[in-house]
Amino acid sequence: MKDKTFIRNRWFEDIPVGEFHVFGSHTFSELEIIEFGEKYAPEVYHTDPLKARDTIYKGLIVPGWQITSIWMRMMVKYMERFAEGVQDGRRNGAGLGLQDLVWHKEVYPGHTITFTHEIIEKLDKTIKNKWGIIRSRNEAFNQYNELVMSFTADILAEKDPEN
Amino acid sequence: MTIYWEDLSVGDTFISESNLTINSEDIIEFASKYDPQPYHLDPSAAEASIFGGLCASGWQISALTLRMISDRFRAEEIAMMGLASVEKLRWEKAVFAGDTLSVKVNLIEKIATSRLPKTGTIIAEAWVKNQKNESVATLTNSFLISINSEDHER
Predict the structure, then answer these.
(1) Residue among A135, A162, A160 at smallest CA distance from A14
(2) Which domains does chain B have, with CATH numbers?
């Protein structure tokens, strides 16, 4: 194990600033928008394709938090492909929060969104004697290469106890 | 009577009308679709994790917070046209199955424009609390609110 560095079992110290990942793409279906909308965002422009036409959006649009939630799934799935040996998320801690989350442009059913992730900063701070903070810039683009969402996230990563 | 952007003032405060209880089925259903990590999916794996028990995805808490706020705005007939941005969000405490959440919103700034036509922005702080009155999340949000165009054309 020691001679291989896998993305998910690296310590905080092993994660380089500037590292860039493309998590992959997701095409939103009308059905999944409505399902999410009925539970979390019951405005007509998220739940009713016909009534949505008469709104300022002129059709059904993906709820902002659903775009962000799909970012999360894309990240988990992407990291799992590299998760040799670490299945319990031990060194991959919880998210603390985020800054500057903007939904720049509407996402409509059938749009294909590509999600990217760049490590931009490692904060000089240790939480509970164990965790460091990795700051990342996250972006989502539609099929026309337009930015539809961006945010900065702070996520815990376990520090190497031997350091 | 519909409340438009111009009818709202800095200092206006809204409190969610009904408190919302989250159960383990809700947590697992959301997590299996959007955040499939052991501490959101599997109660025994969750006990061994950083959280010490099955807890909700932070993204689910964010979405539920907006749900509670928009339900309140709808009850007030505020012409809300969505959430434009979140300037800052902190998940302060894990939300476990059985927890009951409520939210308080305070309007801190008004901007007469947004990326949509005839729509302004209000910036509001939101505090999400559990049944023990502990803060589970704090957010600074920018909401899109329709501007009364009749007023505008006068």
Answers:
(1) A160
(2) 5-153 (3.10.129.10)
Query: pLDDT digit string (tens) for B53-72?
Result: 899 999 999 999 999 999 99
The pLDDT-based confidence of A86 (bands split at 50, 70, 90) is very low
Beta bridge partners of B121: B111, B144
Averaged over A92-109, what is the pLDDT?
92
Tokens 């903070």, residue?
A133
CA A70-B97-B139 angle, to 5 degrees, is: 55
Q: By CA distance, what is A128's nearest residue in B?
A: B50
Name which of A74, A136, A64 is nearest A102 in CA terms: A64
Band the pLDDT of A1: cuts 50, 70, 90: very low
Q: Is B63 on the interface with A (CB under 8 A)?
A: yes
Contact at CB, A103 and B84, closer than 8 angstroms: yes
Distance between CA B139 and CA B127 in Å, rounded? 7
Between positions 113 and 142 of B, the ones with CB within 8 A of A are: 115-119
| Beta-ladder partners of B15 | B104
Shortest CA gap B9–chain A (Å): 23
- Superfamily, domain A7-158: Hotdog Thioesterase (3.10.129.10)
